[in-house]
Design brief:
Shape: rod-shaped
Oligomer: single chain
Helix content: over 70%
Distance between the termini: 78 Å
Structural class: mainly alpha
Number of helices: 4
Strand content: under 5%
Order of helices and strands: HHHH
Radius of gyration: 27 Å
Length: 87
């Protein structure tokens, strides 16, 4: 009867182990791509909100109104508004 040490040395075991490693790598890459896409979408949404701030200020909305409408903190809106006035 084979012991584990002998079983690990068989060609079948090595092929199965290699196949499992390759499948694991492929699944890991796929998960990584999905996470990357999701992060990219979130960053894009955030960037779009920040880009809207100067236009909303120009329309006469207050910092507090903009923060509430866009789901941002007052600090984020103030920071972006400050960047606009300094450039």
């Amino acid at each position: 009867m084979f012991g584990f040490k002998e079983l690990k040395q068989t060609r079948y075991f090595q092929e199965v182990a290699q196949e499992a490693r390759e499948q694991g790598r492929q699944e890991g890459r796929q998960e990584g791509r999905q996470e990357g896409r999701q992060e990219g979408r979130q960053e894009g949404r955030q960037e779009g909100k920040l880009e809207a701030i100067p236009r909303l200020l120009a329309l006469g909305l207050t910092v507090e109104q903009i923060a509430e409408a866009l789901g941002l903190s007052v600090e984020q809106v103030q920071q972006k508004a400050g960047e606009q006035t300094s450039t």
